[in-house]
Structure formats: C-alpha cells, structure tokens
C-alpha cells in the first residue's frame, strides 16, 4: 500500500505549489504492508424527520473505498504538525479484510457511527485502486464477500453477529452464539457491517451466491 505524506494541507493551489518547493514539504512515498484495510465512515449527522424518527445515513462502499484510489487526500493531525496522506494499493491478495471504522474513542467514552454501508456481495472490482503499471501484474481483481461481522446496539452494550457463506451450496447463514439460521443475501447489506472478509475470484470460479 503506497502512502504519500504531505505537509501543507488544504492550501490554495498556487500557495501549495510554492510550499512544495521547500524541503520540509516535499512529497514522500512509503510502501507498507497491511493486514486489513480501514474504511472511514463520514460523520453521521443524526437528525429527526417530520415523523420524529431518527434518520440513519447511508454511504456506498465505493465512496469509502475511494481512500485508496491514490488521489483522495486525508488530513492527519499530530501535536506538532498537520499533514496529508494519499493511499494506493500496490498488491491485491487472495483475501481482503475490510474494517469499517464505526468506533471512535476519546478520554471519556466510545462513540459508534451507525451509518449503513451499501455494498454488493459479489463482483467488487478493485482494479481502479491499482496504479496502471501495477494493474498489468493482476489478472484477477474482482472479489466476492464470504464473511460479514455485524455489531448491533450501543458500543458498550452491543452484541455481534456473523454472516458466513457456505461455499459448497452458495447459501448464507447467520451465526450468533450457538444459533445458526438461514439468511437472504439481501438482508446482509442492511446490517451495521463492522468487519468483512472478501475472496478474490479466480478465472475458473463461478458465482454461486445468487445475488
């Protein structure tokens, strides 16, 4: 995964170009390994509609995957400085783990972002998140979901469920403690997904998930 730190966040284009001439603001590229990809959720503006019901915001999976397209800049702050990072994938492994960042910790409590992520469970193509030269080395860039971990409820009192694909039959099952039940693929996308495992589709594989 490529990482591009920059030391002049959100400056006007001309001023930014001038600052980049200084050594302290030179762009640097660092390649690092990863166990999973953290997907940042937008801030959840909870408000009530005309029926006084809470509105739960939604975001497409590809919107939060844009963090890894090599051009989207994310600002980071430390005690001493502010800087920008851009991320781009340099390799696509057989399995990918997404961690949707739902929890934010501060000195007093943990907050949970309830935003629903809209995602297909098959045919997620990540080719566009690779640079052109890296794309040539990847014959297969499409992934199918095989497991989905859900967090329900408040951050300190919630519970977990897991959705698992049975590869032999193409059916999905929901597991919670010792209880196992069938679940329709369409219902998986309505959950507060927290951790997902995706499997790269090889050329000779067929889609058995039926969704």
Automatic annotation (TrEMBL):
PROSITE patterns: USP_3. It comes from the Eukaryota. It catalyses: Thiol-dependent hydrolysis of ester, thioester, amide, peptide and isopeptide bonds formed by the C-terminal Gly of ubiquitin (a 76-residue protein attached to proteins as an intracellular targeting signal). This is ubiquitinyl hydrolase 1. Gene3D superfamilies: Cysteine proteinases. Transmembrane segments: none annotated. The lineage of its organism: Eukaryota, Metazoa, Chordata, Craniata, Vertebrata. Its EC number is 3.4.19.12. InterPro entries: Papain-like_cys_pep_sf, Peptidase_C19_UCH, Ub_carboxyl-term_hydrolase, USP. Residues 1-201 form the USP domain.
